[in-house]
Specification:
Elements: H1 2-36, H2 45-83, H3 91-129, H4 132-138, H5 143-182, H6 186-196, H7 199-225, H8 230-263
Length: 264
């Protein structure tokens, strides 16, 4: 009886793990095919341009808004702490380091994940349940080449640019508080911010959004292409894409930060 119970437990464990392992395997296959398509034609340049407009230009207003108020809040909070030590003139350096290293890339990636991973998953999911993707295969068009690779390229190009915009606008938001509330001069704030940044910080701040973009775009495409069950399945795929992409943003930023801390 004990052997039978043990065998049943192992079988249940295997049944539980099989879908997760299969999903990971499918994600790696999708990623490999999307990257391979970079080096072979056809390249759908028009689709890439459209996706760059949707992902980049479409996300610009919310990225500017969040970036500005991020710098605004960081400056307000840090000025209170630094005032105890008479070091409020260093607030610019703290805002610059915090935004460029961590908050700029992470907040921008989360916004893009929420806005575009969901959009990609719902768009491809709708195509999947209405059999448009099967029709593309029947006509001899590779869905990965046509649908996935342009979205991956567009996200990898636009997310670092959006991050740069968010960082700069965040510094402007910090300057607004530093100048009008704390009483720092323009020279004090911007000199402190400029001198605090090193090449290590800038490299870290640009590498993270590039990796985030790769993950966000492929996660959205992955869940979109696996959609089943009609309109309800589209909604479920959209939710899964946003959750998975957001979790991976935090996992990846932890790993990259760890690497750069060791290199410093």
């Amino acid at each position: 009886m004990g052997v039978v119970a043990s065998g049943n437990a192992e079988a249940r464990l295997l049944d539980f793990l099989k879908p997760a392992v299969a999903a990971i395997q499918d994600f790696y296959v999708l990623s490999g095919r999307a990257v391979r398509n970079l080096f072979r034609g056809p390249h759908y340049v028009d689709d890439i341009a459209i996706q760059m407009d949707v992902i980049g230009v479409g996300s610009l207003p919310i990225v500017i808004l969040i970036g500005f108020f991020s710098g605004f809040v960081i400056t307000m909070q840090m000025s209170r702490a630094l005032a105890q030590y008479g070091a409020t003139d260093q607030v610019g350096s703290i805002v610059a380091i915090t935004l460029v290293r961590e908050l700029g890339p992470v907040l921008t990636a989360l916004l893009v994940a929420g806005r575009n991973a969901s959009g990609i998953a719902s768009e491809l999911g709708s195509m999947q349940v209405t059999e448009q993707i099967d029709a593309m295969r029947a006509l001899g068009t590779d869905p990965i080449q046509k649908l996935v690779t342009p979205r991956m390229i567009a996200t990898c190009v636009m997310l670092p640019m959006l991050t740069i915009v968010a960082d700069f606008v965040g510094l402007i938001g910090g300057y607004a508080i530093a100048y009008f509330s704390i009483g720092l001069t323009t020279t004090q704030y911007w000199t402190s911010a400029y001198q605090a940044l090193e090449y290590n910080d800038i490299a870290q701040g640009l590498l993270k959004p590039f990796v985030f973009a790769f993950i966000i775009s492929l996660v959205g495409c992955f869940y979109g292409l696996r959609t089943t069950g009609g309109t309800q399945g589209v909604g479920l795929a959209t939710t899964k894409a946003v959750v998975a992409a957001s979790v991976w943003v935090f996992v990846i930023t932890s790993l990259i930060t760890r690497v750069f801390v060791n290199l410093h």
